[in-house]
Write a structure and sequence with these properties.
This protein has helices at about 15-25, 135-150, 185-200, 205-210, 215-230, 235-240, and strands at about 45-50, 65-80, 90, 100, 115-125, 165-180, 200-205. It is of the alpha+beta class. The strands form two sheets. A five-stranded antiparallel β-sheet has the order 3-4-5-2-6, with no helix packed on it. Strands 1-7 form a two-stranded parallel ribbon. The longest helix is centred in the C-terminal third of the chain and has 16 residues, at about 215-230.
Length: about 250
C-alpha cells in the first residue's frame, strides 16, 4: 500500500496487538508458556522460543556471556492537562540519566488521565544496577531538574512551571536491551549453532535473537518464521536464516 505518512497506534496501546495474537494462537490450539524458563522439557516437535538466548546456554561456555541490560520506567503524574503534542522525546548524549521520555496520552486519547499528564521516563540500568529507586525524594528532584534542562518540562522562568508530581511510580524491566561487547558476533554464531543442535528450538524476538530492534522488525521476523514453519523448514535452516537480522537497525 502507498505510504500515507500516518502512524496508527492501537487505542489501548501496543499490548492490544499481543493480546490479539495470543487469542488467535489459543484458537488454533497453540500452547503459550509464560514466566518460566525453557529447559528442553517440551513434548512438542517445534518450539518457538522468545525468552533470553543466554537461558538456553547456561552451560555452553563463552556463548553464555551474551547478556542484556535492564531499563527503569519512571512514571510521573504531573498536575497539568498537557505538555504539547509531542509524543516522544529522544535525548542524545550521556549528561542526562534518561534517553527517552514519552507521553502516552499523545499516542491515544484512551491513555489520558483527565487534568493530568503522565510522563514515562526511561532510564537505562547502566551504572545504577538493578536496585535503584528513582522515586526517592533526592533522586526524583534530580530527574525533574534534568527534565527541565532537556526542555521537556517548563522551568521556573516560564509562565507555567510544573510543581512536584502528584504521584511517582517505578517499574524495572530486567534484561531488555542486548549488551554488545567486543567479539559478540562470534559468540552469537556459536550460540545459534548450539541452539540449532537441539533440533526443535526456533528462537525469535529481541531476546531470543539478541537484537536491538523495533516492534515492526519483531512482527516481520515472526512472519518470516511462521512461513518457514508452515513450509516445514528445520531449526537449523531458521538459525542460518536468522543471521541476516543482525543487520536490522532501529528507527527513531
Amino acid at each position: 500500500p502507498r505510504e500515507s505518512g500516518t502512524f496508527l497506534y492501537p487505542p489501548q496501546g501496543t499490548g492490544a496487538l499481543v493480546d490479539a495474537l495470543r487469542a488467535q494462537a489459543a484458537a488454533l490450539g497453540i500452547p503459550i508458556h509464560l514466566g518460566r524458563a525453557y529447559r528442553g522439557d517440551s513434548d512438542h516437535t517445534r518450539v518457538v522460543y522468545t525468552g533470553h538466548i543466554s537461558d538456553l546456554l547456561q552451560n555452553e561456555g563463552p556463548a553464555a556471556t551474551l547478556s542484556h541490560r535492564g531499563l527503569y520506567l519512571l512514571y510521573l503524574a504531573l498536575p497539568t492537562p498537557t505538555l504539547g503534542a509531542v509524543d516522544t522525546f529522544y535525548v542524545p548524549g550521556d549528561d542526562l540519566w534518561f534517553g527517552r521520555v514519552s507521553l502516552p496520552m499523545n499516542f491515544s486519547p484512551q491513555l489520558a488521565v483527565r487534568g493530568e499528564t503522565i510522563l514515562c521516563v526511561e532510564i537505562p540500568e547502566g551504572r545504577w544496577g538493578p536496585g535503584q529507586d528513582f522515586t526517592q525524594p533526592d533522586l526524583l528532584r534530580q530527574v525533574l531538574a534534568q527534565l527541565v534542562r532537556a526542555g521537556i518540562l517548563p522551568g521556573a522562568r516560564r509562565q507555567s512551571p510544573i510543581g512536584r508530581p502528584l504521584a511517582a511510580q517505578q517499574l524495572f524491566l530486567p534484561r531488555i536491551y542486548p549488551l554488545y561487547r567486543r567479539g559478540w558476533v562470534g559468540r552469537w554464531q556459536h550460540a545459534m549453532r548450539q541452539i540449532a543442535a537441539h533440533g526443535k528450538i526456533y528462537p525469535a524476538g529481541r531476546q531470543g535473537l539478541f537484537l536491538h530492534c523495533n516492534i515492526d522488525h519483531c512482527v516481520q521476523i515472526a512472519h518470516d518464521l511462521a512461513e518457514r514453519l508452515l513450509a516445514g523448514r528445520s531449526a537449523a535452516d531458521w538459525v542460518a536464516h536468522s543471521e541476516q537480522y543482525l543487520d536490522v537497525r532501529v528507527r527513531d
